[in-house]
Every structure is written in structure tokens, then in C-alpha cells.
Design brief:
Largest sheet: 5 strands, mixed
Distance between the termini: 28 Å
Strand content: 15-25%
Structural class: alpha/beta
Number of domains: 2
CATH class of the largest domain: Alpha Beta
Helix content: 25-40%
Number of strands: 11
């Protein structure tokens, strides 16, 4: 990832504290700053802002799993610059520092905001993707737990189309998938066993194609499905169609096969259902199947800091839990 030199120079001046509302750093403290961010850089005594700009260029050039996502080290740098413990007089909430930094970052299509834990987060403006996502298995804050509860209620009540459009599509975009195409349910004949197809670019620039078969309710292997559940046998034919049918990639102007299939459930996917499908599919197809159930969706969606679907928020509190309104 390469940014304009003008942007890097202005960020260098901010880190050095040559811009109002930011902590001034001498040569010694610049070295300390980068070391605290996990980078083994030592200032060599040259012009501070120019040296910092060169180091920022080095950080942005670090290899990434997804070329569209900023390096973790760069995110740590921005978070350290906006640490609220370094607030200046006249800018106790750091809103002025935030505004000054956003003037620079927006030139590259990014913006920074404080989340509910007062931690600075970087978001790509065009895609609304947050630069760095924490582990979905970490402990959640009380506000995150409340957002998770609201989303869980929404998943119990929403339609299958809402599950796809309002939850899965934003989530997979955040996770770095692109060219996400929803088949929808208006023309069933064109789905060929998949509700969504998308692709993911590896660091080697090879592309892997994915299909998603999404069901709103629970997936089980019972002979007769209970209310709100789906029999896994119904999924078998759809998965077989998905893996055997080509999709057209307009970027390459050719048809390609789906490499992997996600079976996504808005409820639980029972162990019996997983085992039944695994026994029905041959070894090659079995290795292409991945499962995602309600708890996976909830944890990933919340730690990704995505705005809740409108239908998940109480009418009287429509914006208070919405991270889409950062300031």
C-alpha cells in the first residue's frame, strides 16, 4: 500500500507534535513512540518529520494478508497519536486533534473515530470497513454485549433476505471479501444452490471464490424438521449445485468454479447435521465446506464494530448504539 508523500509528511509532523493539539516529541521520544508501537526504529538525528514520514512509508509497505486493509502497525501508530491521556488544554476530548488528523487521512480515503471504549479506529470511507478487527473470542464490553443481544433478537425475527442483505454482506465485506454478489430470491432459477458468491485475494494475488448458502433457522438432521429449522438434506443438493456450477467474474470476463462453500445458519447447526453432510459428500467436496452458525455471526459482527441493522435497534434509541455516528 502506497500513500502520497504529502500525506506522509503531514502525518510525520503530527507525530512529532509540530501541529497544534498533538504532543511534542524530541528525537528520544520519537524512538520511544515507535518502540511502544512494536516497531524497532531508532531516530538517526536527521530532520524529525521527514524521518518519521519515511518510517510510515516503510510501515505501509509491510506485507498484508489483505492488500485493502491497513497494516496492524500503522493502526497502532494512529491509536497512539490519538491516545486520550495525551489531551491538551483546550482539547480535552481530543475532538480538534481528531478533526486535524482526519483532514490528512481523508486524502487517502480513510477516517478515524473513537469507538465506545474510547479507542481510535480507522475506517475506509468507501467501503465502511474498519482497518483492524479484534479476535471474536475476546471478552466483550457491556455495550458490545448489549449490541450482541439486540442483534441476536434481530436474527430470530428477520427474514432470510434480511439475514443476507443486512448482516452477511456487510460482515463479509468487513472481513476482506470483495465482488460480493447476492443472487436474491426473486429469481430462484438463477441461484444454482447459492445465495451469495464472492472472492478473496491472497497475499500472492491468487483469487479464491466462495459461495454462501444461507438459512435463517436451525439446521438439523431430524427426519422431520421442527418449526424454524431446516433439514440438512435440503442443503445437500444446493451445496452440490453450488460447487459444480460456474459463476461469471466480470473483472476477468470469464466463468470460474466456486472453490469453497459457506453454509450459514441464523440459528444452530447441529453436530448430527454436520456429520450427515460430511458422510454424504465425497472427500474432495467435504474439504470445500465451511460452517458458520449464529454465535459465529454474532461474535464476528460485534467485534468488527459494524453498525447494527436498523431493524435491530429500538425506535426510541435508534442511534445511541450505532457506531456509524462516531462524533
Amino acid at each position: 500500500m502506497k500513500w502520497k508523500m504529502k500525506t506522509l509528511r503531514e502525518l510525520g509532523a503530527i507525530i512529532c507534535g509540530d501541529v497544534g493539539f498533538f504532543k511534542y516529541r524530541s528525537s528520544y521520544f520519537i524512538t520511544e513512540f515507535f518502540n511502544d508501537c512494536g516497531l524497532d526504529y531508532t531516530h538517526d538525528g536527521t530532520t524529525r518529520a521527514a524521518w518519521v514520514a519515511d518510517r510510515l512509508g516503510d510501515v505501509l509497505a509491510l506485507p498484508q494478508t489483505n492488500p485493502a486493509i491497513l497494516p496492524d502497525a500503522f493502526v497502532r501508530i494512529i491509536r497512539s497519536v490519538l491516545d486520550k491521556s495525551e489531551a491538551h488544554d483546550g482539547d480535552k476530548d481530543r475532538s480538534k486533534a481528531l478533526a486535524a488528523l482526519n483532514v490528512v487521512l481523508k486524502r487517502e480515503g480513510w477516517e478515524v473515530f473513537y469507538d465506545e471504549t474510547e479507542t481510535a479506529q480507522l475506517r475506509h470511507i468507501a467501503t465502511n470497513v474498519v482497518a483492524q478487527m479484534d479476535s471474536p473470542h475476546r471478552p466483550m464490553t457491556p455495550l458490545e454485549l448489549e449490541r450482541r443481544r439486540l442483534l441476536e433478537t434481530y436474527l430470530s425475527e428477520c427474514s432470510e433476505d434480511d439475514l443476507i442483505e443486512e448482516v452477511l454482506l456487510p460482515l463479509f465485506r468487513q472481513l476482506g471479501y470483495h465482488r460480493i454478489t447476492s443472487a436474491g430470491h426473486r429469481d430462484k432459477a438463477l441461484e444454482y444452490g447459492k445465495d451469495v458468491w464472492m472472492k478473496f485475494t491472497l497475499p500472492t494475488l491468487h483469487v479464491i471464490y466462495f459461495g454462501i448458502q444461507a438459512k435463517k433457522g436451525r439446521l438439523d438432521a431430524a427426519g422431520m424438521g421442527k418449526n424454524g429449522s431446516n433439514n440438512i438434506a435440503e442443503i445437500y443438493n444446493q451445496v452440490s449445485m453450488m460447487l459444480g456450477h460456474e459463476v461469471f467474474d466480470p473483472e476477468l470476463n470469464r466463468r470460474v468454479l466456486v472453490d469453497h462453500a459457506f453454509i450459514v445458519s441464523g440459528g444452530e447447526i447441529t453436530k448430527q447435521a454436520r456429520n450427515w453432510l460430511g458422510n454424504k459428500l465425497d472427500a474432495a467436496k467435504r474439504s470445500q465446506i465451511m460452517f458458520m452458525e449464529r454465535n459465529d455471526i454474532l461474535d464476528l459482527f460485534i467485534v468488527a464494530n459494524l453498525p447494527l441493522p436498523k431493524g435491530a435497534l429500538p425506535e426510541v434509541d435508534r442511534f445511541s448504539l450505532h457506531d456509524d455516528v462516531p462524533f
